[in-house]
Every structure is written in C-alpha cells, then in structure tokens.
Design a protein that fits this description.
Length: about 350
C-alpha cells in the first residue's frame, strides 16, 4: 500500500525519551551529568525538544549552524560547540554557543577578541590529547596554555575534557580516566583561582568504563549522543540493557521488481563510483529497485528488516535481491540504521521525517 512518502525516516520520540530517562538515572548514580549530543540528527528541533523535556540541561552539537537553529527555535538549554572552532567562525561561536571545546591558543585569543566586541564572557573546555589522536592539547603543554588563557579577559575556563574512540579507536580505560582526573587536580592546584567545574571524560564509548569503575574520580560529565539515539555503547556497539536500539527506522519503496540475471551482461567498464564491479553468477533472481541511493543515505549502514540482500547502489537507486519475498512495485522495505546511516539520512534534504510518539 502506498500511504506515506518515501524515502522516509521514522523517528520514535517516545523511545528516545525512554533512553534519555534511563541514561540520566544510570549516569547520575555515580555523579555524572550528561551533555546530550544532537549532532547525529543535525540538531533536529523536534529531537532537541525531547532532550530538554526529559531533563537534559546541556546540549552539544558539532556545527555552530545547528546550535544557531536550536537557539532560534527557543530551545532552553546550555549549548556546547563540540567541534573545536575554526578561525573563520569565531563571531558565530561567541554569538550562539555558551561553551566551546578548544585546543588552540590562537583560536582562544580570537574568541576572546570577539567576546570583548560582543560584550560577553565565553566559556571554554580545554580538550586534552589522551591517545585517540584527534583534537587535544598534549598533557605537557596544558600548564602553559592555561596560564595564557587566564590572561584573557573575556574567556573563562570551566573545565577540561577528553575524547576517545573517534579517530584512533582508543578506549577510555580506568587508567585514562584516572589520568584525566590527575590532570584536573594538577591544574586546580597550580591555579587556585579557576574552578574546573566540568571534567568531561568522553562520549558513548565511556559506557563500559562507567559501569565497571568503582570510582569515577573527578570525571563529572560525559557528552552522549549515540547511546541516546541508538541505545548502544560504541566500543563494540553492544546494546545498552533496557534501551531501545530501534528509535530510527528507514523506509524505502520498490520502484521496479523483475526477474533478471544476477550478472550484468555486455562489455564491462567502470560504474558510477569509478569501480569495476564483480558479481557472482547465482542464476536468475527477482531483483527489486528501491528509490533511494548513496546520494540520500550511507547504504552500507542499512540493515533490511526483511529477508532481502542489498546488491549495490548508484546515486538514486538501490538494487536488492528480493529472495523469497516476492516484492512488488509500491511495497515498502524497512531498515534499521547505524550511526553513519542515521547521520546521512538526517542531513539529506530528500528524505522525509515522520515522528512517532508511542512505543
Ligand atoms: C560526537 C562527539 C561526541 C558524542 O559522541 P557519541 O559517540 O555520539 O556519544 C562527544 N564529544 C565530541 C567531541 C564529539 O565530537
């Protein structure tokens, strides 16, 4: 039956609410506050509203444009810019973000200049490099940077942070977290005038550390996105007990369904992606074409909820082996999504969004 626009993403806000509620209780049990991260859904207003309704007071996004969008929608929260700012976006950061994560003195000085002009005090969290080798100040350099930042009139250091499992796949272990705590204590000792109220240990990858540790040390904040949205920790993508992993369902529609050979015929050269594909001969099969392609969604992040196999895709078409399903034109196929698929869907202008409010 054709009853709804495709391709579409069905977003179950009740399941997201449930996940937030459970995670807040869990992390509070050892004194950790969650910054709710919405970058995986492009700062979608409907979802940010749910975060705030469920009690999240601090919202993080990697794009200043998303933060601006949420502000303009009057979402009442503290906004943290998660991706360290570039020199070209300083004024917007001061205007829209309450806090930004930072590692470069030159950028922080520029934030200070803009904050002066805009008559604001801008808060920063200094990110420490702890092995994952993405953003971060090397621990040996932190004292000098803190000293230089303290000389800036309109910048206030509110904390330090670390990030794991994003670039290098490095785990936030007990050792790493203890190291972060000791860095915080040292900064505090050398600079009694500053108050490091936020020690932000990481992201959804910190779940296993959190449940297994007896002592979270000074770590009192985690910036959590994927666990809220998809109900998983991110070191091995295990579901977190009691959370929904299916708040997002992607739906595509069959636009052609025919019995055809399994191997392309004719002289073979490159396809759209510039590769020369190879296919195993599996005789003739029912092949269904879905009206969605890699322009719309990261196809590799989709798992069909029906017993069909994705054979490949071009920018606007995806070909599936219909196997025994006898798919017809107009039939819909639902897929579960991973983080990459969710991200691509939520930033795609060609995918409609359908919100569901009941579990
Ligand atoms: C993306 C991001 C997060 C959130 O990560 P999740 O895996 O979605 O929990 C936290 N901190 C920073 C700096 C990020 O870039």
């Amino acid at each position: 039956m054709i009853n709804s626009i495709t391709p579409r993403i069905e977003i179950n806000l009740a399941k997201i609410s449930h996940n937030i509620e459970k995670l807040i209780i869990l992390y509070h049990s050892k004194g950790i506050e969650m910054t709710g991260v919405v970058k995986g859904v492009c700062g979608q207003i409907e979802i940010a509203k749910v975060y705030v309704e469920m009690g999240i007071k601090s919202i993080g996004d990697s794009k200043i444009s998303s933060i601006q969008k949420m502000r303009e929608a009057n979402i009442e929260a503290e906004f943290i810019l998660l991706r360290i700012p570039g020199l070209s976006e300083i004024d917007a950061v001061i205007m829209h973000a309450d806090i930004s994560l930072n590692t470069e003195l030159e950028v922080i000085k520029s934030l200070n200049d803009s904050a002066k002009t805009q008559n604001k005090i801008h808060k920063i969290i200094l990110m420490i490099e702890m092995g994952d080798l993405r953003e971060g100040i090397l621990p040996d350099d932190i004292d000098d940077i803190v000293k230089d930042v303290l000389a800036l009139s309109n910048i206030k250091i509110v904390g330090i942070g670390s990030n794991f499992a994003c670039f290098g796949g490095v785990k936030p272990t007990e050792d790493k977290m203890n190291h972060l705590t000791s860095i915080a204590q040292k900064i505090q000792k050398i600079n009694p005038t500053i108050s490091l109220t936020r020690i932000s240990g990481g992201n959804s990858a910190n779940y296993n550390w959190f449940v297994n540790t007896e002592n979270t040390g000074e770590v009192n904040n985690l910036r959590v996105g994927e666990s809220i949205l998809l109900g998983r920790e991110t070191l091995s993508r295990m579901p977190i007990p009691g959370l929904y992993t299916d708040a997002f369902t992607f739906v595509a529609e069959v636009i052609e369904s025919k019995i055809k050979p399994s191997v392309p015929y004719g002289e073979i050269a490159q396809n759209t992606l510039g590769i020369t594909p190879e296919f195993k001969d599996r005789g003739i099969m029912r092949r269904a074409i879905l009206g969605v392609g890699f322009q719309d969604v990261l196809i590799s992040g989709l798992t069909p909820l029906l017993d069909v196999v994705i054979l490949g895709s071009s920018s606007d078409h995806t070909v599936v082996d219909a196997k025994g399903t006898n798919l017809r034109v107009g039939d819909e196929i639902a897929f579960s999504v991973d983080y990459g698929a969710m991200l691509s869907i939520m930033t795609s202008c060609n995918i409609s969004k359908k919100y569901i409010n009941v579990i």
